[in-house]
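User: Predict Disease resistance protein At4g27190's structure from this.
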Amino acid sequence: MGCGFCEAALSKTVGALVVDCVVKPVGRQLDYVRRFHDNVEKLREKKRELADARDRLLHKIKDAKNQLLLIENDVQNLQSRADKTLSDMGTLEEEIQLNKRCLNWSPNWSWRYQLSKKAMKKIQDISELLDKFGQLGPVGYPVPTAFPTIDFLCSKEFVFSQSSETAFYQIIEALKDENINMIGLWGMGGVGKTTLAREVGSQAQKLKLFDKVVITTVSQKPNLERIQDQIAHYIGFDMKKEQGRRSEQELWLRLKNEPRILIILDDIWESINLKEKIGIPIGDDQKGCKVLLTTRRQQVCRAMDCQNVVQLDCLDDDEAWTLFEKKAGLDDFSDDSIKILANQIAKKCGGLPIAIVPLESALKGKTHHEWQAAYRRLKDRRLTEIEDVNEENAYVCLEASFDYLKNMETKTCFLLCSLFPEDDEIYAENLVGYAWGLKLYKGMDSIKDVRSEVLASIETLKNSGLLLDCGERHVKMHDVVHQFALWIASSRKEVSFGTVETLPMDESFKHYKAISFETDQTDELPKGVGFPYLKLLLLGSFMETSSEFFEGMKALQVCALKDQLISLAAFKFNMNL
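Assistant:
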């Protein structure tokens, strides 16, 4: 190989050396030749130092971005200069290797001079860069406006609250953790899980935690093919082919090629094997794929082995009022009397967005009298009687949770809780007594077994967001859930539970199977009304009772008295206590 390239390089190098020797001290030029190996080795050492410094800077930049900081301009410029210098180093090293192959065609001193000189120049450049790395201050600075603000964090539908802020950051931190790939977000129906999950997906992409974010709804009766199609659509993969539909394994293989993808599975009711049923690589299959699921059942998070479980709670009173005031258009409203009513209505909603949103929409622009009527109906637990508020948009989420309960015993335990006063802390042992007296759990011949079943039902209800834990063996109902439970109890013939708050009673209660008297009136209870189907009767304090009140209660199995006695004469009516 004649190597014309080497001849040309030799001629050019010698000429350059002669020129330099004429105008520059000869000793310096000879140093380039004599110290060639030292210069090349020193260059490689400087390259390693620069690469290490650049990597440390990249780690700092990543940490700053994770903390939602903006990166300083000089830091970005320094990173760019380091990247370019390291890239140029690759070119210089290739040139050294290429010239080595020309040793047989060119005197050793000629190419050593040129490359040694380039190496010294590059060493000087890198030293200057390393000095700048040493002088570098903080790499990032906070966003000019405080984060999070409601405008930045929230979409139009998103309800900003302390709970949602806490849940948001918990999920974001979990998404950053390389050891976590399955995150569960749970809370009662209507609390805002879907909107929060969508906001997390949007922000996670803006924060460059993921290259792609996929969102799909699972629902109570999941259509797995539709879920696969939606996921495949997001990643540009067609589940259909000429021979038919692609398999879960093919989707799994395709998703494994995605280096950083977040899949949000919204509204899951039962545990799903994501790999076998859908084709989602999770766990050791693919570190780059993470799943965020939302559910109203805490048990789903456990069953699907979520490494991080986040609960979304209701709004507090101030947050509920802020939302209500904004959505109902009361910000600039001058009528203080309406604002007072609105504030009371917002409190009655108990911080549950699914109740606030229908109400603020229904009352927006209404007169004082309409606001007053709405408050009366809400106070009297007649939410669905408010104009423009229908059952579907008031209770649809809660009804789905109730209907999903697997057995009637658990549903009955839930409805028994509705017979207690609003905001009452319900002692679980009272429910045990009622269940035992009503023979609620068939085949149970000991109260110990019934107690175990009742406590299991209570756990199911708490994990479904239908009951709230408030201490050792005590639970309570969210105000809106309490209204919903009374609505269900009174509207379904197979249940027919209800509460009496005012006397006298009307005839509509005659077909009820369970009644709770919550009235503060000291009037004597009505005589001879007749409750042929009544099985459970709860009587409050300071109520006058006579034996005649129990006449006609042939089916009565449980009678709970509070701070009062019942006349033995009542037992002459052959009740089934």
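Residues 4-141 form one domain.
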